[in-house]
Give the backbone structure.
Amino acid sequence: MPWTKVLVEKSAPDFDDPAGRGTRQLSYGEAIREALDQALARDPRVYVMGQGVDDPSGTFGSTLDLHRKHGRRRVFDTPLSENALTGMAVGSALAGMRPVYVHNRPDFLLMAMDQIANHAAKWSYMFGGRSHVPLVIRTVTGRGWGSAAQHSQALQGLFLHVPGLKIAMPATAYDAKGLLLCAIADGNPVLFLEHRWLYKHQSHVPEEPYRIPFGKALVRRAGGHVTIVAVSQMVIAALAAADELSRAGISAEVIDPRTLCPLDTAAILGSLRKTGRLVVCDTGWKTGGVTAELAALAAEKGFAFLKRPVRRVACPDVPTPAGCTLEEAFYPGPADIVAAVKEVMA
Amino acid sequence: MRSSLLKDLLFRMKRVRGVELAIEAEYPNDEMKTPVHLCIGQEAVPVGVCAGLRRDDYVLSNHRGHGHYLAKGGDLKAMVAELYCRETGCSRAHGGSMHLIDTAAGLLGSSAIVGGGIPLAVGAALASQRLGQKRVAVTFFGDAGAEEGAFFESLNCARLWKLPVVFVCENNLYSVCSHIDARQHTREVFRRARAFDIPAARADGTDVLDVLRKASAAISRARRGRGPSLLECRAYRWRGHIGPGDPGAELYRKPGERARWLKRCPIRLLERRLLAAGALSARELREMEARAAGEIAEAFRYARASPLPGPETLGRHLFFAEPAA
């Protein structure tokens, strides 16, 4: 099979420290594009579709000119029919292909909820494993510049509730490439949730294809006083918060789960056992979301380690406002994480 | 048409009818703990369409899928075992009556979300086209399926990319107990294809030969790379939406409607034709019926003798596990 020879990452890389790993730097978007390019070259079953994947901006650069290299039968523009096209991707997967369906924004996935939740997520289980759906749905969460209520949602909490969906949320260019190659090689539906603000970030990205296995969290920064679990763009905020906290003499450990399903519960509980204090951070809403799930994990399986109640840093339970002053108030950032940590340290 | 083919069509319809009647008879014993949607009266549609397909062609079915599954060549024993919630069921008791699958026979699965299977067939057709396989995909859906957005989106995509898919609408006039006149401006579903520049036809869904003829034209067109077609087949659901019988029929059916349709039994129609033409003897007919009954009895025996899955299997098959490289 085309994927058996792709290197699977064994050790945990530190994207902040490229020493000894070469110096080739790519942006988040370029890393995603390289993963797609390599997957298309390696596996004739792979195709990439989505509104505007072949347009001059190429989905923020992540699909730029791939149609020129691999042809329009394998990289193609689509009608605005999110539900049927998700179903079409699922059907093509049942018939032997490996589709990657690209959306500019997760908000549009709500148009396809029937095919995502009723079909893709259930096909393997509902048919007793007689069939399965190798499908990747990519989408880029927006933020800022008045994107407002329908162009900025971070819906991972909603999807996390549905059994049968894998969810990857890369925070770095290195992870974006390795997790995307893993997602395409996986035999299951994977929601690959990117963040627009991460597109400007660069990190070391090896040229050869490599897969980052799902369900392996990474300690982004080691520390002993408090555990901060953060996903996607909140990883960047958590690292900034950890810097500031260190100046106040607080040593924070930052853990990036990288995938929400499967979730590396051992890594989170292991760190909590060491620190006894937990702050969980997400780019989505607070109620019934990722931070609620992480807090429940600590309450159920890590209660004995907790010296203080868990604190959550997430978006307030209102739609995203457009106005810049309201946006500023809506989004949590490093200052909120610092404040939450100081509460659990008190 | 050759008389062997005609007799085969008759046998296939009798077999589907026989299975449905056996389910209906056994259902009150409460061993089949799954909602069943019987296709009695509509047998000519799946049998006629699937007679025009190759084994490696694809079918996506819906909640009323027993006929589609059997007509496409799905394993009868595995289907009955699924209805009996057995480990040997086609979906290992994870699916039930509404989720039948036999990938070896090209039956890729059945969705119980109305209209949900339509885009899946478009996708199977895309795979066939892009992988250069010449396989045709068929999706069966009802008149209510043609009310869903997925239907219209799928027609557009299939035509845009000239995909080898045949949309088969089984128009049985009812969605649960709601008559089509309460749901659609026109009963003529097939005319909607014109807006998408897709060729369409209407077949008499009680005449298996009419269905086969028109389906074959659509299938052949798809196989030759000339794109999708829509075939509307008019038939009548003799039973209620769900389960045996038709409770409350007099409250929702139009007066005299059912009696008129019962005169157009697809099986009797073909049987009478064959007997009149001397293409079928009374002895052959008896043998055919005995053969179907034997297969059905054997399948029910097999299902009842099969083990029920234990609670330890509850968490299995949520995810496909890639074999270790």
